[in-house]
Amino acid sequence: MRRAFPFLTAIIVSAIASGCGGGGGAISVPATPGFTVSLSSSTITVNQGGTQNLQVSVAAHDGFSGPVLVSAPAVPAGVSVSPSSLSLTPGSSSTFTFTASKTAGIVQQPSLLEAVAGSLAVETAIEFSVNGPAVPDPFHVIGGEIVHGFYDPARQLLFASNPGLNEIDVVSGVDFSVRARVSAPQPWGIDQMADNKTLVIGTAAQQILTLDEDTLVVTQHPVSLITHTLGLFYPNPVALANGKVLIIGQEQGIESGDIQDGGQFVVEWDSIGNTFQVLRPLPGQLGFETDRLARSGDHKWAIFSADQFYLYSSDADTLTTAPLSTVNPPVDSFGVRGYATNADGTVIGVASAEQVTFLDRSFNLLGTAQIPSAFQSARTIVTFTPDGSRLLLQYALPTAIEVVDANQHTALGYYTAILNPQDNSAKLIGLDSSVRAFVGTSGGILAVDMTQPIIPNDPGNQSIGAAFCALPAQSTIPLNVAVQGDISLSSGEQGTSFYFGGQPAPVLANGTKINIPSSSIAGPVDIECIGPSGKTFMEANSFSYGVDTIGMSASLLPPNGNAHVTVFGYGFSSAGNPPVVTVGGQATPPPQILSVLDSGVLQAVDIHVPNASGGHPADVNVSSANGSSTLTQAATYIPSSTIIPAKGLLQVLYDTHRNLLYALKAGELATFNPATLQFQSVVPLPGLTGAGNYNVMALSPDGTRLIASSPDGYVAVLDPSSPASVSVVATNLTAGVQTGSVAVTKFNKAVITGFPTAVQVDLATLAVTVIHSHLGSLVRASADGNFLYGVDLNTSNGEVYAINPVTYSTQSESFGFLFWTDLAVSPDGSQATAIFGFPNAFGDLLGFFDASRHLLNTNVYPLVSPPRDVLVLGSVYSPQGKVLLTPLGNSIEFWDAASGTLRARLATPEELPVLAFPEGPEAPQMAVDSTGQTIFAISATGLTVLGLPQPVDTMPAKQWAVGAATPAQKGAVAAGIKARVSAMRSTKSK
Questions:
Q1: Of 856, 796, 870, 793, nearest to 826 (Cα)?
Q2: 127 and 145 assigned to the same domain
Q3: Do 97 and 182 fall into the same domain?
Q4: Which of 523, 871, 873, 884 has its CA 20 to 30 A from that of 467?
Q5: Mean of the per-residue pLDDT values for the chain?
Q6: 193 and 83 co-located in one domain
Q7: Does residue 227 register a pLDDT over 90?
């Protein structure tokens, strides 16, 4: 809407004499000479990059004959006017020409044109408008967290690593559509091999991956190396022409300058022979650390910096070195911050804080270029353009791409690539042949057009200038309505052009109002700001239209209990008023708005789900002052949910041989029949003297023996078919020590952890034997008893043990700054998952290990199904091993064991007992039947029995909505597992 002004096309300033005639006599006043000013238009409208003329004419009256000086009106930033003034005589006219730069601010504002002749002055009001066309939105939502990429110009495809979703995203270089989402565990750095069709991908895990660009088939290559350190991750590779791939090996818990990107080893993978070896450091070499690897375009040369600067020749399969002071003169004063080599390896560019040094392959100095300081090493990239004429340095905070002439050795200026909040994970991930730059960041990819004019560096070449983007006071409006929003621009911010979803939004009223364009499409849009100098700033998903419901945290709902879930979307709240939410056509109690989960304008509301009959899908509708939106089949009510009242339950265990459930109490064992939903028998469990005190149990693989263990140093053994006869045996473990763990091997030998060591109980003879190996404080067995795994609880070395079920010898792997709280083993023992949870922190971190203790994957949460409660002990694999079920206080998560992604979330009808230190559950609180279709969980008032619509192994995965990541997800992914642990601990719970 335009602001109204009293526009005048002519203003006359004159003195008029008048008098009264007849009878009373007349007084005559002589006329006063003066002039009038006429304009060809009362408005001046100029397009960005265009011109507009304004004709001014002067007319005299009552004998005026002098010259009139007409001054040009004040113009908006980015607009020039010529000439600055006109000298006109009465009866003449002349023209002002207004020219707007391509980045002039889109604005509507009043102005005045002043004409002066001696003591006479005329002011004419005009309205000034700078118009601009719609622009392509440079931000493209992918979801998750984009950290690295490779652009294949032959296929015009960008392959982007997305550890936030455990996938490689195949993105069109033409329209940025996502052509495919390829499941890939914790992908990180990515490079193309010399065959021009195979990608090699580093991971935030103990393996590398290859991906065929034509078939999109991913092959996993676990890395087995003995380095006498904590377990290594392999985040970044470069591929060479001889089939060798250099990979960074990163000690977990030892941060590098580039956080997830760097490491303490350089490993060589022979892709032909599939062998791995440590290339550097050499034995006894100390202080080695490298932050990145780089290669030439022809795959024949690779470079990296550590204690020295290294050049690898693919043809010779050799390394040559130079002192750091040679590649970073003078005397390596500022440290090597980044490096790259051109297409054929003839030029190497090395960046420090204040300069780029150009060298040839013999490390001869070619020249230096001063750059804005300070160029940081962390999360920044250095790369040559494909033609080698320019070197690009990606700065962080704010994100910008500095351009250095690689021939003249001069800094030319920069392009901005800023998203708010200033995302320290933003990273240059690729270039196309037309020199567009792709920047990966939280939730998507930003395309930077480097054919636009370069922004000059600030005076003195001292810094990369930051851009700015003021947001309007309101962040959401209804559909099909244009609104004048309140905004506050300082004097230094005048002249900025605003775009909502690419549509121009003129600034009004001297920077206090903005004309927000309307939209007929519900959902979020980006706000882009372009300053007069060309500096840009993108506020991703920072404004929304109408109401757009995109997801509900639970995809499965119990038919009773009014389960607690979270609904996500846009436009839910206006002026703080909660929306009206219905589930399956039934109204919910007034929801609670959760601002803590906001990301941009993504909103979340907590609701209690209405009870309903089981077995049917439920739509979710949200209505607010902005409109309404329905998410069809947001969730499905499961067929049945029953709570059996019971007290004192400590553990549940499902017997697949008898299709019965055992529930352990401190002094008794209860048998529950799932067919009748009744407890059918109770067996007392005596102690060595008097009543027993038990806290954990296990069943032998053949089902002939059940053993319960006491923290007071004894066990009870019985035959479930004849439960009345119970044998009690002393273990000689220190009384009062929490065992927390019993596992039974295929030989009917029970392993019990405790202090001072673990013991074995022969379930046939009841003989007790000391185990001298350290097995960890928590041990689990596969269903057939062929595999034993262990982890250490409450220690920070993240130890994972593979245990020989006969000799109890162990092989272990450590992961720094981690400790585990639970452990699950797949039925066939081929996979084990260590689970980290923390009291008073939401969610869990899952480490998926193979039988050789390689950490192959970790779990990732969808945007619209984040955890909202604390871990519960008792994670268990499905019967076929395809899904890991992990309970939280208010839900059960169904994790895909291959991809680490969330297949489904089942809200529980009442709270489950969460992890707590030092007192709290110690044994599994959940069990699954042999079909994988019924779940049993200890809950607040008893035993909850949940019947699923189909076996969990065949349950289709929920397609969760994607979008910009939440702040917690950003921090968790950007710095790897250690940061995820910190993020979990910092998350407030109830």
A1: 856
A2: no
A3: no
A4: 523
A5: 89
A6: no
A7: no
CB 126 within 8 Å of CB 7: yes
pLDDT of 48 > 90? The answer is yes
**What count of residues does the chain have?**
990
Q: Give percent helix, percent strand, percent coil of the chain, each to the nearest 5.
A: 5, 50, 50
Closest CA to 887 of 837, 955, 951: 837
pLDDT at 984: 57
Element (H, E) at 976: helix 976-986
How far apart are alpha carbons 386 and 389 in whole angstroms?
8
Amino acid residing at 579: P
Burial of 880 (0-12, 13-18, 19+ CB in 10 A): middle
Contact at 8 Å (CB) between 753 and 774? no
Percentage of residues in the chain having pLDDT higher than 70: 90
How many helices, marked H, and strands, marked E, lie in the chain? 3, 84
The DSSP secondary structure of 478-526, one letter per residue, reads -TT--EEEE----GGGTT-EEEETTEEE-EEGGGTEEEEPP-SS-EEEE
Per-residue DSSP letter, 337: -
**Domain containing 116: what range?**
10-131
Rounded to a whole number of angstroms, the CA Rg of the chain reads: 36
In this structure, are 306 and 443 located in the same domain? Answer: yes
- How far apart (Å, rounded) are the C-alpha atoms in residues 164 and 188? 10
pLDDT, tens only, 18-29: 233 344 445 556
The 3 state secondary structure assigned to 768-825 is EEEECCCCCCEEEECCCCCCEEEECECCCECCEEEECCCCCCEEEECCCCECECEEEE
Residue 592 is assigned to a structural domain of this protein: yes
Domain harbouring 115, CATH code: 2.60.40.3450
pLDDT tier at 207 (50, 70, 90 boundaries)?
very high
> What CATH number should be reported for the domain holding residue 144?
2.130.10.10
Asked if residue 98 and residue 143 are part of one domain, the reply reads: no
248-257, 738-747, 962-971, range with the lowest pLDDT = 962-971
Burial of 689 (0-12, 13-18, 19+ CB in 10 A): exposed
- Segment 577-631, tens digit of pLDDT: 889 999 999 999 888 776 544 456 888 899 999 999 888 899 999 999 999 999 9
Residue 464: pLDDT band (50, 70, 90) is: low
pTM of the model: 0.92
Angle at 54 between CA 48 and CA 56, to 5 degrees: 160
Is 653 contained in some domain?
A: no
Q: How far apart are CA 692 and CA 710, in angstroms?
A: 8
What does the CA dihedral 747, 749, 751, 755 come to, rounded to 10 degrees?
-150
Kindly tell me if the per-residue pLDDT of 229 is higher than 90. no
* pLDDT tens column, 121-177: 999 999 999 999 999 999 999 999 999 999 999 999 999 999 999 999 999 999 999
Tell me whether residue 399 is in a domain.
yes
> Which amino acid is located at 756 in the chain?
P
In whole angstroms, give the CA distance from residue 488 to residue 467.
16
Please state, as a whole number, how many other Cβ atoms lie within 10 Å of the Cβ of residue 369. 22
Q: CB–CB of 280/306 below 8 Å? A: yes
Assigned token pair, 482:
């244009």
Q: How far apart are CA 544 and CA 843, in angstroms?
A: 29
Helix 976-986 vs helix 967-974: angle between axes, to the nearest 10 degrees?
150
Would you state the torsion angle of the CA atoms of residues 339, 342, 344, 345, taken in this order, to the nearest 10 degrees? -30
Considering only CA atoms, which of 566, 561, 552, 583 is closest in space to residue 641? Answer: 561
Write down the pLDDT at residue 14.
Answer: 33
d(CA 507, CA 501): 16
On whether residue 568 sits in a domain, the answer given is yes
Number of domains in the chain: 4
Mark whether 289 and 337 lie in a shared domain: yes
* Strand-pair category, 244-251 with 237-239: antiparallel
